[in-house]
Amino acid sequence: MRVLGIDPGLTRCGVGIVDSAPGRVVKLVHVDVIRSATDLPLEKRLALIHFELSDLISRFAPDAVAIERVFAQANVRTVMGTAQVSGLGLLLAAQMDIPVQTYTPSEVKASVSGNGRADKNQVTTMVTRILNLDVAPKPADAADALAIAICHSWRGTSMQRIAQAAQRINND
User: Fold this and answer.
1) So which residues are the catalytic ones?
2) What angle do CA 50, 151, 123 make, to 5 degrees?
3) In this structure, are residues 164 and 25 in contact, taking their beta carbons and an 8 Å threshold?
4) 68 to each of 20, 44, 78, 146, how far by Cα in Å?
5) Does the pTM exceed 0.85?
6) pLDDT tens-digit profile, the chain (172 residues)
7) Contact present, 120 and 72 (Cβ < 8 Å)
8) What span, in angstroms and rounded, lies between the C-alpha atoms of 112 and 130?
9) Which of the residues 61, 102, 103, 157 has an alpha carbon 20 to 30 A from that of 88?
10) Which domains are present in the chain?
């Protein structure tokens, strides 16, 4: 299964793509950070991120999209930008009929490190080990996107099977 992980952000949107195989084996396919300049109007920033996400989906054809769930922070402006970018990922997945799942930061951290309160360095270290990389992905947004993709690779498969079973029951 190929998973696109998205760490939504308006200034820096981390994107990571992994291929997974049985036995919790995951392999790096692509990692990047989509950046938008803070001096651009909001609609231009969102258009740029939308274009880049669309291009990634077209080029890499993921089987699933996993997005970090927006959580409340003290900075409302940051939450709004994160939510808007998250919405782009959700919309693109829906438009392209790709299953999508959201995960809280603590779910992602627990999945890759065993600790839902792991700091960014611990997550980056574990992502580097899990993917058997020579160099840690940077910045943290890139490592976080890979962690989200890994989390879905390990947890999402069973969630997808449950959703498919529920759909079959509803269709009967």
Assistant:
1) 7, 68, 141
2) 95
3) no
4) 19, 23, 14, 11
5) yes
6) 999 999 999 999 999 999 999 888 999 999 999 999 999 999 999 999 999 999 999 999 999 999 999 876 667 778 899 999 999 999 999 999 999 999 999 999 999 999 999 999 999 999 999 999 999 999 999 999 999 999 999 986 555 554 554 555 667 6
7) no
8) 8
9) 157
10) 2-171 (3.30.420.10)
Give a three-class secondary structure readout of the chain.
Answer: CEEEEEECCCCEEEEEEEEEECCCEEEEEEEEEEECCCCCCHHHHHHHHHHHHHHHHHHHCCCEEEEECCCCCCCHHHHHHHHHHHHHHHHHHHHCCCCEEEECHHHHHHHHHCCCCCCHHHHHHHHHHHCCCCCCCCCHHHHHHHHHHHHHHHHHHHHHHHHHHHHHHHHC
Supply the pLDDT for residue 95. 96
Tokens of 86: 């998250």
For residue 126, what are its two tokens?
């574990």
Residue with tokens 């808007």: 84
